[in-house]
Amino acid sequence: MTLDVLYFAWLRERIGAPKERVETAAATVRELVAELVALDDNHAAALSDLSAVRVAVDQELADLDHSLDGVREVAFFPPMTGG
Amino acid sequence: MTLDVLYFAWLRERIGAPKERVETAAATVRELVAELVALDDNHAAALSDLSAVRVAVDQELADLDHSLDGVREVAFFPPMTGG
Amino acid sequence: MLVRVQQEEFDPASLLRGFGPGAGAVVTFTGVVRGDTGRMRALELEHYPGMTERAMSAIAGQAQQRWNLIDVAAVHRFGRLEVGAQIMMVATAARHRAEAFAAAEFLMDYLKSRAPFWKREIGADGPGDWVEAKSSDEDALSRWD
Amino acid sequence: MLVRVQQEEFDPASLLRGFGPGAGAVVTFTGVVRGDTGRMRALELEHYPGMTERAMSAIAGQAQQRWNLIDVAAVHRFGRLEVGAQIMMVATAARHRAEAFAAAEFLMDYLKSRAPFWKREIGADGPGDWVEAKSSDEDALSRWD
Questions:
Q1: From which domain of life does this come (chains A, B) (predicted)?
Q2: Is residue D39 predicted with pLDDT exceeding 90?
Q3: Which one of A59, C123, D126, D136 is CB 3.0 to 4.6 Å from D51, fit for a cystine?
Q4: Rounded to an integer, what distance in angstroms lies between the CA atom of residue D6 and that of residue A75?
């Protein structure tokens, strides 16, 4: 399965890119995170503290156990500060 | 003592005038009301149900026991409906 | 602080030009004449000249102190106001949103029941009933005690 | 319902022209860039194009249903916003004031913590820290459960 993975704010900065295309067999967000963390130090640093990370799956907020079945886009970002 | 007595909204309509000058020896608003009620039927009708009447003494909300000492203007009106 | 009582229409944009410098949060409330019943053409607002300005200034001053507002404004019209017309506006400026919202609600609750205005409905046949004060409006005040 | 995400300045008066026909109560909230610290020149707002519009529309739709609003609007800017600039605005139109106020506060609480925007401070030397989410903002959401 091919996924677009997006990063925002300080996660984008730590990863060093706003977006990457990932080939994965992960069934859930949590499994995807484990694969990303194994990629390199940047990914490991960005995704080390998941309590500070929020997830969107196909542009809807989701939790780590959300299924990736049929999903095209996953985003990781810090808690939002709009308004 | 000479007082300006003002009426608003339906009290003004029942009294038949927005304002009258009153010569009185009343010590409190309550005593003034008793004198006004004794004047004629219009005053009696307007001031019969004091639970529906609010009072201002020199343009500040006041209760019936407020002193008239040094006062120049007393107003009677229904509960306010601003905003 | 801006407090105005006037017959004329007001323009919110020009009233708010330069309002609350340094504020992070600006809340406005605008009251408009509703034409729910279909029979009503307009509202006639009577007020108590002199006391109205005093009461509105006192209410605005209380809000300013209580929430440490950067600025506060209250404009209220009187006279004949057609369905759809603006009746009044309050605006509050504060550092944060919670203060600006609370102060605007406080101002509205007090203006409703403590500023000397009286509304009556005007129908096709002329003046109708005086609008009765709602007990819910009186009750709303108690939350600020 | 009006939902907009844009870089450009917005004009509240033109956004509110014809807003909420038949409403008795219109509430607006405007967020402005504060320059409290003195060091900060501007905010940089990053957002998630696509998701932002979806999230804002969903939040506005929830408010509209929950309070039976006559109209609702939400505009949010992104990019570099100087101290004193407008960041965003929400507006609600309802029959009565309690609904319009509650819906506007609900919208703000949700936009703060559930719309994908991230703020960072820009000082004289360039980009500074990302603004951290406040636990009080997260807590504010629980009052709507």
A1: Bacteria
A2: no
A3: A59
A4: 21
**Burial of B43 from C-beta contacts in 10 A (0-12 / 13-18 / 19+):** buried
Between CA C7 and CA D115 the distance in angstroms is: 42
Residue B47 dihedral angles phi and psi, to the nearest 5°: -110, 20
- Burial letters for D40-64: b for 16+ Cβ neighbours within 10 Å, e otherwise? bbbbbbbbbeebbbbbbeebbebbb
Compute the distance between CA of residue D117 and CA of residue D12 in angstroms, rounded to an integer. 21
Q: Determine whether D141 is exposed, middle or buried from the number of CB atoms within 10 Å of its CB (0-12, 13-18, 19+).
A: middle
Q: Which domains does chain D have, with CATH numbers?
A: 2-142 (3.90.1170.40)
Who contacts D109 (Cβ-Cβ below 8 Å, separation ≥6)?
D137, D140, D141, D143, D144
Q: Which residues of D touch A12 (CB under 8 A)?
A: 46
Residue of C nearest to B9 (CA): C118
Tokens of C133: 């004060």
Question: Are C46 and B59 a contacting pair at CB < 8 A?
Answer: no
User: What is the SS3 assignment for A42?
Assistant: helix
Superfamily of domain A2-77: Beta-grasp domain (3.10.20.30)
D50 touches C at CB < 8 Å: no
pLDDT digits 0-9 by tens, C5-33: 999 999 999 999 999 999 999 999 999 99
- If we measure between CA atoms, which residue out of D30, D33, D21 comes closest to residue D93? D21
Given a contact cutoff of 8 angstroms between Cβ atoms, the answer to whether C15 and C72 are in contact is no
pLDDT tens string C128-140: 999 999 999 999 9
* Domain boundaries along the sequence of chain B: 2-77
Q: Do D112 and A81 touch (CB under 8 A)?
A: yes
pTM of the model: 0.96
